[in-house]
Amino acid sequence: MIIRQATQEDHKSLVDFQLAMAHETEGIELHRPTVELGVQAVLNDSAKGNYYVAETNGQVVASLLTTFEWSDWRNGTILWIQSVYVKPALRRNGVYRKMYAHIKELVKQNNNLNGIRLYADKTNLPAQKTYENLGMNQDHYTMFEWMK
Predict the structure, then answer these.
(1) By mean pLDDT, which of 14-23, 24-33, 36-45, 113-122 is the weakest?
(2) Are the C-beta atoms of residues 20 and 65 closer than 8 Å to each other?
(3) Residue 62's CATH number
(4) CB atoms within 10 A of CB 3
């Protein structure tokens, strides 16, 4: 298995994964053309974020997106992991663990990066357990949001 930054050739897989994740985790049917444009925007502009994929035998089997949060407290950037998806047949086989290790190594090697954050739906207990098993802890903040 290799972990690599996604390319334009991964666009369809990334879109398919986002649609599947929204359906599986929140029961939401996203608008494919909107997701296609959203994924393309990231692939076109790394200032928005970076997709990473796990590939086995030439097949993309998982993906995640990293985005950026500036921390004035740390005078550096925190990477947010978002949009994690692993094909169902490969879950609980260490795919995400390898992807997380890749991102963690990027942070360790870059003096401008100060850490990793992510969020999980409160009802997604398997995801929370995975993150805890990787040494991540729930912070003391509660996330609030407003969406148009």
Answers:
(1) 113-122
(2) no
(3) 3.40.630.30
(4) 18
